[in-house]
Write a structure and sequence with these properties.
The structure is a single chain. The protein is built from 7 helices and no strands. It is mainly α. Helix 1 packs across helix 3 and helix 2 (28-40) packs across helix 3. The longest helix has 23 residues, at 51-73.
């Protein structure tokens, strides 16, 4: 009953969360299912005080576990072939530069403390309002703003250093 209610409430938000983070969109339903599978293994999922925060932290952990498994198994060593390959006006150099920047951003975010990273991800990547971020994580809006400022400063410095190499 609790899982059904959570699925009805958060299924679309979790799908969007994963869609923004994986290259193979067909994996999204499986990733969402993994979140609910982990919840179903809990002794008392009804006891979760902050379900939204818990779900998105669990979703982030599902992605981390998937990345670890992929690294061990050699996943990500190939690109999916699109049947409808269309030409692009974006140069290969620009695509490569963007991919490198995305990988660097991911590495920089992993350097942050977990709560600071969660605030940054929910605010910048998920587009939540600061009050919603604070509520989801269970901190004050002012504390969330401080975490956001810390994350932005760290990301900006790290990417500037990387860009000027």
């Amino acid at each position: 009953m609790v899982l059904t209610r959570l699925a009805q409430t958060y299924d679309r938000a979790l799908s969007r969360f994963f869609e923004r983070r994986v290259s193979v969109k067909a994996d999204v339903p499986d990733l969402v299912q993994d979140v609910y599978l982990r919840l179903s293994r809990m002794p008392d999922p009804a006891g979760i005080e902050k379900p939204e925060h818990f779900l998105f932290v669990t979703a982030a952990n599902v992605l981390k576990d998937r990345a670890r498994r992929g690294a061990v198994r050699g996943g990500g060593l190939h690109d999916e072939i699109d049947d409808e390959i269309a030409g692009s006006e974006i140069s290969p150099d620009r695509v490569l530069e963007s991919r490198e920047a995305a990988h660097r951003l991911q590495a920089v975010l992993l350097e942050l403390p977990e709560r600071t990273r969660d605030v940054f991800v929910l605010r910048v990547l998920e587009g939540l309002k600061m009050a919603d971020v604070a509520r989801a994580i269970g901190i004050s809006t002012r504390a969330a703003e401080k975490h956001q400022a810390k994350a932005l400063a760290h990301v900006t410095d790290a990417l500037e250093d990387w860009r000027h190499r």
